[in-house]
Design brief:
This protein is mainly α and 119 residues long. The chain contains 3 helices and no strands. The protein has one domain.
């Protein structure tokens, strides 16, 4: 990191799936595969590994969102028995697929900003 960026700024850029250093280029070349290096600032990203943190954070958020929806659909509506679970599975899958790369970007930015060991 050439100049000091706040952790909040770096994490925000990562969450938006942009380069945490320059915010000018995409952080990922595929769904969860980070670019080798930023095409704008040449910051290498291949060595920063987020491991299980993004999956943990995604499940934490998704399950906390689904808990009140579960209560509402199962106990407060007159839907057939299979309908609430179908809705919950679809909503859970959609939210997980939406949030997982964003949390991975957030964790990559945080790891990079704190200078935590890589690889």
């Amino acid at each position: 990191m050439d100049f000091k960026l706040s952790k909040k700024t770096v994490m925000s850029r990562g969450f938006r799936m942009r380069c945490p250093n320059c915010n000018a280029a995409p952080l990922f070349r595929a769904y969860l595969k980070p670019v080798e290096a930023c095409t704008s600032c040449a910051q290498p990203w291949s060595e920063v590994r987020a491991d299980d943190g993004p999956a943990w954070a995604t499940m934490l958020v998704v399950l906390h969102v689904l808990a009140p929806v579960f209560h509402l659909l199962v106990f407060r509506t007159e839907l057939p028995g299979w309908a609430p679970y179908t809705i919950l599975c679809g909503l859970g899958l959609g939210l997980s697929l939406l949030l997982l790369p964003r949390f991975k970007g957030l964790f990559i930015g945080l790891i990079w900003a704190t200078g935590a060991p890589t690889s």
